[in-house]
Every structure is written in C-alpha cells, then in structure tokens.
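Appendix B. Chain record.
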Amino acid sequence: MQLETLLANIAQHANLVDNYGATHLPIYNTATFDQKRQLPESKSYDYSRTDNPTRNALEDIVTLAENGAGAVCTNTGVSAIALLFDTVLQSGDTLLVERDCYGGTYRLLGILLEKYKLKTVYADFTNLTEVEQLLQEHTVQLVLCESPTNPSLKIVDLKAVANLSKKYQALFAVDNSMATFASQKPLELGADFSLFSATKFISGHGSVVAGAIVAKTTYWAERLSYFSNAHGRAQSPFDVFLVSLGLPTLVYRMKAQEQSALELANYLTTLPEVLEVKFPGLPSHPQYDLAKAQMSIIPSVLTITLATVELAEQLIRNTRLFGEKVSFGTADSRMEIPAKMSHATYSEEDLKAIGLSKATVRIAVGLENITDLKADIKQALKQVLIKPEANE
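Structure tokens predicted for this chain:
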C-alpha cells in the first residue's frame, strides 16, 4: 500500500475496534477504562498513561508508515529523544552525535552529561572517515543524527552510517523530523530507530506539540513502550487527534512546499544582499545528488547568510508574511536567526563549527503563494536603512 493511501483513512488502517464506524480517529479522552464493559475482541485497557485506543491507533499508523515493529507517541518531540536515551543508555555510556543537531538535543545531552555522566562525542557525519575513526577510538552505544541536519541542512548518508554503526556494534537512531516518513524511511536504510517531532510537517498546523519514535525490532519497541509508561512520556488522546488531522494531506503539503522552497531559493541567489543560500534541492548544494537519491521530497527549509547581522535582523523585522518563529513544516512561512532562537544554547565556537553566524537566517516555507513570499522579501530588503558613517 502506498503511503498516500495509508494516510487517507487512518481509522480504517489502524488496528482499532470501533463499533460505530467512525471515518476519522475517535478520541478516547478518558483516564481509566471499565474492565467489565470492554468488548471481548478488543485489546484490554485500564489506564491511559499505559495504553489508549486513540494513541495506539496513531502508533499503528506510524509503525506502518516507517515499516517498523512498533512505535510510541510522546507528548513532545524532545520527549521522543529523551525516551530513546532512557531506553537504550546506561550511566557512563558514550554517544556519537552529528555536530549540527537540534538545539533541544544539544541542551538535553548537556544535562545528561552532568546528571548521568553520559559522554557525547560530536562529529561531522558527512565525513565518514571521521565517523569511523571516532567509533574506533570510543566504545559507542548509540549513534544519533538528523538528515537533513538542522539548521545547516547537511545530508547524511544514512545507509553508510548505519553500516558503520553495525560494524562497531552501536545502535543507530535518526531524527527524521525534517524529512519525515513522507520523504525518507531511516529503518529501511539500516537505522534501529526513527524518531521525529510531529509538531512540524506531520501535523502541519502549528497547533500541537508532539513526537514519536519507531523501533525496527519488537524487542526495542516493547522496551520503548515500557519506559514511556514508567516515565510518563505518552501523548494525550486529544493531542493525538490534532496530529492525526494533518496526516491525510502530509505528502501533498510537502510536495507543494518543496516547489515553493525551490523557487524561493533560486530567487534568493539573485539578491546581492544574500551571500549564501543553502537548500538541498539546489544543484549547488554539496550533497545534492545524495539528497535526491535518499529523499523523495526535499523539505521546505533553507538557510541564507546575509551581508551583515543588521541586515538579517532588518529582513525579519520588515517582512509581513514571515513570522519570527521557531519550528518549521507548518502552513505559515516563518523566519528566525538560529543563533538567537533555536540554537541560542550554542556557544560562539559551536555555532562556527556548524557553519552558522548571527547573520544566518533559517526560512521555513509554508503554503502561501510563492509570488507573495518573494514580493514580501523584496519589499523587506528595500526598507533597510543604510546608517550614515560617524564622520558624515
């Protein structure tokens, strides 16, 4: 079954017993369940932190979409990352992490270093020689990366990293928040876990925070479920419902946004105020061929570097259609300076290591008409006031 067909009617394809034939996912917004009143053919439920029919249905769909063995839906995206760490790591373990990682992951790793003495080794995952050298030098339990990376938009060869992880007996997890299962399926490329923030493209509304993690094997799926229950990381039924509303249109939204992002990226390359445009859909991107081979849809996120910090700030301030917001993957377009917002916890040195400056702007392209978005950027740059020299 093709993904579009699966997502078009999730109530039908999930393992959900529903005597009323609801055409969309019913919300079982209850804390507890009466054991005496449950149907004999249905799964037995007692407490919603442990299991809930609404959440289980979305977990079934996500498992099918990722071709995994089982999934857990969590209350936030970073909660899915924390659940991964809870499940597979012990005090004193070592992780190998892509240097350009989500700011929330970076912050969490710093906390875990202090509390549980977890050691994190960072690397450029586009340099496979460096990755293997570090796997040789350290006994690594878990390898973690995003692809595309956020916000530098590097493309990691997931199959190659999966092979190296197996060679050195490390588990491999991919944060698939930006590409989603609509574009790439990490488990099919050799990863042990695929996790994502459902806040972004998956839900698409910007109305809910949510996450999920999918395991390749039944063993790890059951362990994830156990620790999710023990640590209270499960997603509420109503939030599950909000996420589910975006699934039928996911593929079509992402394809439309990809086309708009490509047109905008090409336009931005013509502007003298823009020094650099990074977008994996541009042939100028260093991993363009890998991006096209590994992903069926290029996510609609790009970064630009402006001539000055002031120009970057003025661009964001003067646009009318782009909100100054973190996150991406929603219907509305948005801009942010990662050094000030999503990656504010990074030091100057760490920002430089992943190719960011305070003049770097991340743009998430939504579903507006691309003509309007280009016109908005044009008028915003025209408003920039050139400050007079001090001796004038």
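Further analysis of this model is presented in Appendix C.
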